[in-house]
Design a protein that fits this description.
Layout (H helix, E strand, L loop, with lengths): L15 E4 L6 H18 L6 E5 L5 H14 L4 E4 L5 H10 L5 E4 L8 E7 L8 H11 L15 E4 L2 H11 L2 H7 L2 E5 L9 H7 L3 E5 L20 H9 L4 E5 L6 E4 L8 H14 L6 E5 L5 H9 L3 E4 L3 H10 L2 E6 L3 E4 L8 H15 L3 H11 L5 E8 L2 H13 L4 E2 L2 E7 L4 E5 L4 E6 L5 E8 L2 H17 L5
Parallel strand pairs: 2-3, 2-4, 3-6, 7-8, 7-9, 11-12, 11-13
Antiparallel strand pairs: 1-5, 4-5, 9-10, 13-14, 15-20, 16-17, 17-18, 18-19, 19-20
Helix pairs in contact: 1-2, 1-4, 6-12, 9-10, 9-12, 9-13
């Protein structure tokens, strides 16, 4: 892994992340905390506490304590969690405790060398761009001096779990899940969901076997990301013991992982589809569906068949959360594994997502694989999704975006381009409901090309054509 020297502090779609001891240092944590505090001075009175939480990463608890001391020096009352904590849990408490918001130390699903920090306002969802832009603007003038450590009387510890669990149980049909007697395998992936998701499963009467439920800053040598390559052990256990479902979360528990009884890892697109159907059909709930530009259009088909609104946002749950604060949203989510639902906070929650899938099984009394097949069929699927990660330098990324904005092609792989969207990157809306999205990474030399088509053969053709055409746009050639 190459390590950059003192890269600038930038807030991406979900806070600032860096490599521990390279750019993610105590000095930079002090600087960013003071930049956040400068924003807090403009938005909140100091009679409201600032909450601080952290995930299971190396030194995350120490970084959190340092931030607490910085805020205490600045006159804020600070409440720090007793142990590592899921992001949705601290987000809920930020609202419940009428706080000035929360600082969460996490790098989510990133590898072990990374840590991160994000600010969660008192509305319990991700900070919107105007807030993060203000924080970033404050960084240059903020000191990186270590705190004095003299104001410990302003810092206290608290347990955020009880109130969160009490709230979660109001969103679940606990008795229905209990009556189903589900057999569950749960892989914590050494994440913050240990002691949370397993407790919820026990409360809901599930026969549960749990794995990797200790704190391991190296995540067992893998990554705390609930995708297929990290869930081999969970898949094996589900199949070996004929479990009804396998569950996992990412490092800070805001993303979900679901394995059906056959050992298939469900894509986030599939889970969004499944839960939209479940909440509407089985629980009689109404509200809009909100998805990002990179998320399946099968959700559009579901919205049309249910007669409900569909909204498309830029990538980043902050945009979905913003829509949730503006209108009733049945389900909002993104292809990267985050979702929230009607009545919940405007923040993604892997714990709740996993349990809602279990609830769907309990309502229907059918195997999860069958529920998935029915949901896809009812949405006129399947559709086929693919993502290319093209390694391009900055000038090549810019040239490609400029080209597709200024002179979009008339067709892609023989499909007519019906519309061009510029909500986030460049999205080509094609005939037959197919689409292609070009979206550059803001932090890496990558151009991500997402696509969705109605056949695997067409998907391969679209991928090959896009890769070839983008390669031609390299200004260095």
């Amino acid at each position: 892994m190459s390590i950059a020297s003192n890269p600038p502090i930038k807030f991406g779609t979900d806070g600032w992340r860096g490599i521990i001891a390279d750019d993610f240092t105590f000095a930079n944590v002090c600087k960013v905390t003071r930049a956040i505090a400068s924003y807090l001075e403009t938005a909140y009175a100091k009679d409201r506490p600032v909450l601080i939480a952290y995930d299971t990463r190396f030194f995350a608890d120490e970084f959190a304590q340092t931030a607490a001391e910085v805020l205490a020096d600045l006159g804020w009352t600070v409440k720090v969690v007793e142990r590592d904590c899921p992001t949705p849990v601290i987000a809920y408490n930020a609202k419940f405790l009428n706080s000035a918001g929360a600082l969460m130390f996490t790098a989510s699903h990133n590898p072990a060398p990374y840590c991160g920090i994000k600010y969660i306002p008192d509305y319990a969802g991700p900070a919107t761009p105007e807030i993060t832009d203000t924080i970033v603007a404050n960084i240059a003038s903020s000191s990186d001096d270590m705190p004095t450590g003299k104001n410990g009387d302003k810092i206290s510890r608290f347990d955020p779990k009880p109130e969160y669990l009490k709230f979660i149980y109001t969103l679940l049909d606990v008795e229905r899940i209990r009556s189903a007697g589900l057999k569950v395998k749960y892989d914590a992936l050494y994440s913050t969901s240990r002691g949370y998701l397993d407790e919820v499963l026990a409360h809901c009467g599930c026969e549960t076997e749990s794995f990797n439920t200790t704190r391991d800053v190296l995540f067992g040598g893998g990554m705390p990301e609930p995708k297929g390559s990290q869930l081999i052990g969970l898949i094996d256990q589900v199949k070996a013991d004929s479990a009804d479902i396998g569950m996992a979360t990412d490092g800070d528990s805001d993303r979900f992982g679901v394995v059906d009884e056959l050992g298939n890892v469900l894509t986030p697109n599939t889970v969004l589809l499944l839960l939209a159907r479940h909440l509407f059909k089985n629980k009689g709930q109404k509200g809009a569906i909100v998805r990002t530009v990179a998320t399946t259009h099968l959700l559009d088909n579901v919205a049309a068949s249910y007669g409900i609104d569909i909204y498309e946002t830029a990538v980043g749950f902050k945009y979905i959360g913003q829509k949730m604060r503006e209108t009733d949203v049945l389900v909002g989510g993104e292809e990267s594994g985050g979702l929230s639902v009607l009545g919940h906070i405007p923040e993604k929650d892997g714990i709740l997502a996993d349990m809602l899938v279990a609830e769907a099984i309990a309502y229907e009394g059918k195997p999860l694989s069958q529920l998935v097949a029915e949901a896809i069929a009812e949405a006129n699927g399947p559709l086929f999704n693919k993502r290319l990660d093209l390694h391009l330098e900055e000038d090549h990324k810019k040239a490609a975006l400029d080209f597709y904005k200024a002179t979009p092609p008339a067709t892609v792989a023989g499909l007519v381009v019906k519309e061009v969207g510029l909500k986030d990157g460049v999205k080509l809306y094609l005939e037959n409901g197919s689409w292609v999205l070009l979206r550059p990474s803001g932090t890496e030399p990558l151009m991500r090309v997402y696509m969705e088509t109605d056949s695997a053969d067409l998907e391969s053709k679209v991928a090959a054509e896009m890769e070839a055409e983008i390669a031609k746009l390299d200004p260095a050639k």
